[in-house]
């Protein structure tokens, strides 16, 4: 059931509420059929951006929203042909599953036979056939989520918009449905904008991620670019865990208290601050190691153990090692970091 994808373009879109600017002017191009994730903390402007795409908010004067070549800035949501799934799903408690899925088709006055065929198609896609006649209050959280998604897809929208649709679910169910949704979005091929504050959702679902902070776009890139090549400390610290090391940059080497570390940081750095992810370091013999410290804490996390290591850098360092490793507090350790894993941030 492929939907015809269209590109979306936002030009100089800002938003002010009661004299307070909550979204700075932004330009954003979303490719046809792309799943774009808006990622950031509460209040960063991601939901406001989504609502402008939907037609639930109008950008400040001079802002423009286009679907393909069509300027939709002044069009209300009902004329934009978008499907939207909210955090609380907003399902109708007085309708059963079939009635909820077919609601948009009824409003559009789609012929009854066509509407029934479309609802049957979506019931099968979402594995809800056995629940078609059930009231909403008899469904699990995961089933309600699939009903909401099916209802959004029923009118064959040009754009699919999802506002934190998995937030209300428990962790295990959220992981399962995230994987299912990823598969479904790839099959549909519809242009999708997905809002979340959860980095795991963003990494799994997004073709590209827009990291937002304080009403601004910090960085746009693929999940790998955002994770391995963050454009700022705000991005690096919001997406994943980051360790800081400091030293003097001389001739292609970072000279730290533990010795010289080869690194591919810019030559413009003198007194350097470089960063690395916990999984990009390995333990080494303290003698001759790039960095040396002692174990302050070892936290067993199942598939890995996270070590907190003091004395090796200005701040305690976090290093992830295989889960079966056991190290006591106070154990001296060395830390080795792959040169390509070092991140230089201004």
TrEMBL record:
<dbReference type="GO" id="GO:0016887">
    <property type="term" value="F:ATP hydrolysis activity"/>
</dbReference>
<dbReference type="InterPro" id="IPR008995">
    <property type="entry name" value="Mo/tungstate-bd_C_term_dom"/>
</dbReference>
<feature type="domain" description="ABC transporter">
    <location>
        <begin position="8"/>
        <end position="239"/>
    </location>
</feature>
<protein>
    <submittedName>
        <fullName>ABC transporter ATP-binding protein</fullName>
    </submittedName>
</protein>
<keyword id="KW-0997">Cell inner membrane</keyword>
<dbReference type="GO" id="GO:0015697">
    <property type="term" value="P:quaternary ammonium group transport"/>
</dbReference>
<keyword id="KW-0472">Membrane</keyword>
<dbReference type="GO" id="GO:0022857">
    <property type="term" value="F:transmembrane transporter activity"/>
</dbReference>
<dbReference type="InterPro" id="IPR013611">
    <property type="entry name" value="Transp-assoc_OB_typ2"/>
</dbReference>
<keyword id="KW-0547">Nucleotide-binding</keyword>
<dbReference type="Pfam" id="PF08402">
    <property type="entry name" value="TOBE_2"/>
</dbReference>
<dbReference type="GO" id="GO:0005524">
    <property type="term" value="F:ATP binding"/>
</dbReference>
<dbReference type="InterPro" id="IPR003439">
    <property type="entry name" value="ABC_transporter-like_ATP-bd"/>
</dbReference>
<dbReference type="GO" id="GO:0043190">
    <property type="term" value="C:ATP-binding cassette (ABC) transporter complex"/>
</dbReference>
<keyword id="KW-0813">Transport</keyword>
<dbReference type="InterPro" id="IPR017871">
    <property type="entry name" value="ABC_transporter-like_CS"/>
</dbReference>
<keyword id="KW-1003">Cell membrane</keyword>
<dbReference type="InterPro" id="IPR003593">
    <property type="entry name" value="AAA+_ATPase"/>
</dbReference>
<dbReference type="InterPro" id="IPR027417">
    <property type="entry name" value="P-loop_NTPase"/>
</dbReference>
<keyword id="KW-0067">ATP-binding</keyword>
<dbReference type="Pfam" id="PF00005">
    <property type="entry name" value="ABC_tran"/>
</dbReference>
<dbReference type="InterPro" id="IPR050093">
    <property type="entry name" value="ABC_SmlMolc_Importer"/>
</dbReference>
């Amino acid at each position: 059931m492929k939907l015809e994808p269209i590109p979306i373009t936002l030009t100089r879109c800002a938003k002010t509420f009661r004299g307070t600017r909550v979204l700075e002017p932004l330009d954003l191009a979303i490719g046809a059929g792309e799943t774009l994730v808006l990622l950031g903390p509460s209040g960063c402007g991601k939901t406001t951006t989504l609502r402008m795409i939907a037609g639930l908010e109008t950008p400040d004067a001079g802002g423009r929203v286009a679907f393909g070549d069509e300027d939709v800035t002044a069009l209300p949501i009902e004329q934009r042909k978008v499907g939207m799934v909210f955090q609380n799903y907003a399902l109708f408690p007085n309708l059963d599953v079939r009635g909820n899925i077919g609601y948009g088709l009824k409003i559009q006055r789609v012929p009854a036979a066509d509407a029934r065929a479309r609802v049957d198609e979506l019931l099968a896609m979402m594995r809800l056939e056995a629940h078609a006649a059930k009231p909403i209050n008899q469904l699990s959280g995961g089933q309600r989520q699939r009903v909401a998604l099916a209802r959004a897809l029923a009118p064959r929208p040009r754009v699919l918009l999802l506002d934190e649709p998995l937030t209300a679910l428990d962790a295990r169910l959220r992981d399962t449905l995230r994987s299912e949704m990823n598969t479904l979005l790839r099959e549909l091929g519809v242009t999708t904008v997905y809002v979340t504050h959860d980095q795991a959702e963003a990494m799994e679902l997004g073709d590209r991620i827009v990291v937002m902070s304080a009403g601004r776009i910090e960085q746009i890139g693929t999940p790998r670019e955002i994770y391995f090549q963050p454009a700022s400390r705000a991005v690096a610290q919001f997406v994943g865990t980051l360790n800081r090391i400091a030293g003097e940059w001389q001739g292609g080497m970072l000279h730290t208290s533990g010795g010289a570390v080869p690194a591919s940081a810019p030559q413009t750095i003198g007194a350097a601050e470089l960063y690395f992810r916990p999984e990009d370091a390995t333990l080494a013999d303290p003698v001759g190691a790039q960095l040396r410290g002692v174990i302050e804490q070892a936290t067993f996390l199942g598939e890995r153990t996270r070590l907190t290591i003091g004395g090796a850098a200005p701040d305690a360092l976090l290093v992830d090692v295989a889960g079966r490793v056991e190290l006591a507090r106070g154990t001296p350790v060395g830390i080795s970091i792959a040169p390509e894993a070092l991140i230089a941030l201004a």
